[in-house]
Write a structure and sequence with these properties.
Blueprint (H helix, E strand, L loop, with lengths): L3 H24 L3 H23 L3 E3 L3 H17 L9 H25 L15 H29 L9 H12 L1 H7 L1 H15 L4 H4 L5 H13 L5 H19 L2 E3 H28 L11 H5 L3 H13 L1 H12 L14 H4 L9 H8 L12 H10 L1 H21 L5 H20 L7 H17 L7
Antiparallel strand pairs: 1-2
């Protein structure tokens, strides 16, 4: 039966968006404005349609909302920090628009072939005491491996990275001293933490089971503090993102009222500013060479640390776009097309000798010598290095198909797919800025560990395959 209310809303929203778009592009045309418009329309349309379809609620677990929102932030908003004539900005904007159509097409094609299933509480599968006990055992084992690796890593370095002076460069230098192998094992804190959250939420309002997870929250806090001490933001972001998604799934079945979603989004933005801008400010203040940078000097001299955090957050928004432009300046003239090689290059770093990941290759090709690590390419820059403009379409297209299929599957009471979906949603959203496999082998390790977790629990009768 046709839902005419939803149909009329779509028609109205589409007409309104079309009129506003025509006016905006006609009277205020620039490539960056067009890019912002194209990337923000999917977000707006989704919010309107979802709220009407769900009677005032928004399905916030849907990948079309979150992926398109992050895509808009990284590329749509980021594009407005540069003039349209800056370098290869026009080509970058075209690629971003192509990528937008790529993930939209991927979503709708997968929606045609795989319809939504009825959502049920996927956490209840862990309320069996034997299953929950096994899940907690796996969590403890991962935490122990991470914690021991962390202690060995710190012992090898001799200091806690976040307490070292000249932090921006030192955190990279100590990672070389500590060793990539130990660092990857330390990052298993991420997986142990999200499994811990799953365990805790499985015991929600079940007093008989709460005693089993009484130390899971303590391990969760220790994991976050340990990862914070490394001076990096991304690992902590992944834990918090998945934690919030699991909470929304458990408490609200993944759907939040429009008004509540608005206020929660404000809180989320403030939290991200604190996480991104706050740690960024800490790095600047603990790197003395930054004191002479003209963009930082006014904030430091006036001790305006809040202003510095906001400024750094605004700069963080344009990194993906500006670095994408840098990629276009060296590919294929200096760095030739890789045809998919960069997606396995992090694995090759375990081989003897020196193998550089894509971020370091870009930094050297661009002749950059700034403090810190390599030049993160963004997911579109990484795609362009491999397959040109075709890659800028294919990568978002395939990404959305994967997310859409997992989104449908998680509604079928499968604990593993819930965990896999929330982790991959976090990973794919975060990778819009840094690339899928431009800097580290850890994403592959994380997926392997999650599959091992599934196999470990599947041995118990009653687990849904």
């Amino acid at each position: 039966m046709i839902n005419y209310k939803s149909l009329y809303t779509v028609l109205f929203a589409g007409t309104a968006a079309g009129i506003l778009s025509f006016y905006y592009v006609t009277y205020y045309f620039s490539w960056e404005n067009l890019t912002l418009l194209v990337t923000i329309i999917p977000v707006v349309i989704y919010v309107i349609v979802s709220s009407v379809k769900n009677e005032g609620y928004i399905d916030v677990k849907n990948p079309l909302l979150l992926y398109s929102l992050f895509y808009c932030m990284v590329f749509g908003i980021g594009s407005n920090f540069y003039d349209e004539n800056y370098g290869n900005a026009i080509l970058a904007n075209i690629a971003i628009i192509i990528g937008t159509f790529g993930y939209l097409l991927g979503y709708f094609i997968s929606a045609v072939f795989k319809k939504n299933a009825e959502y049920s509480d996927s956490f209840k599968v862990l309320t069996d005491i034997n299953i929950l006990s096994r899940s907690i055992t796996f969590e403890k084992a991962l935490f122990s491996i991470s914690f021991i690796s962390y202690l060995l890593y710190i012992a090898k370095i001799g200091k806690i990275p976040i307490l070292i002076q000249n932090l921006e460069q030192s955190r990279v230098d100590v990672s070389l001293v500590g060793g990539a192998g130990l660092r990857v094992l330390v990052y298993l804190f991420i997986i142990s933490s999200i499994i811990g959250v799953l365990n805790i939420m499985s015991c929600y309002k079940k007093e008989s089971l709460k005693k089993l997870v009484k130390y899971s929250f303590l391990r969760y806090i220790i994991s976050i503090l340990a990862l914070f001490s490394l001076g990096n933001r991304s690992p902590v972001y992944n834990i918090l993102f998945v934690s919030v998604m699991l909470l929304v799934l458990k408490k609200y079945d993944g759907k939040v009222r429009l008004v509540k979603a608005f206020f929660l989004s404000i809180i989320a933005i403030m939290a991200v500013i604190i996480l991104v801008g706050g740690i960024g400010s800490y790095r600047v203040l603990h790197t003395t060479s930054f004191y002479d940078f003209p963009e930082f000097r006014p904030f430091i001299n006036n001790q305006d640390y809040t202003g510095l955090s906001v400024y750094l957050f605004s700069q963080y928004l344009n990194i993906g776009y500006s670095n994408f432009i840098d990629v276009l300046t060296v590919v294929p003239n200096i760095i030739h097309y890789k045809f998919g090689l960069t997606y396995i290059e992090p694995i090759l770093t375990i081989l003897p000798g020196t193998q550089y990941t894509l971020d370091m290759q870009l930094k050297m090709a661009l002749g950059q010598n700034y403090l810190g690590g390599g030049t993160i390419p963004s997911v579109l820059g990484e795609a362009y290095v491999n397959f040109g403009l075709l890659g800028c379409f294919l990568v978002p297209f395939i990404t959305m198909i994967i997310l859409r299929m997992l989104y449908t599957s998680l509604k079928m009471n499968n604990y593993f797919k819930v965990l896999m979906y929330t982790y991959l949603l976090s990973f794919f959203s975060n990778s819009l800025l840094g690339g899928l496999a431009a800097t580290s082998i850890f994403p592959y390790i994380a997926l392997l560990v999650l599959f091992c977790y599934q196999l470990y629990l599947k041995k118990i009768k009653g687990i849904k395959k």
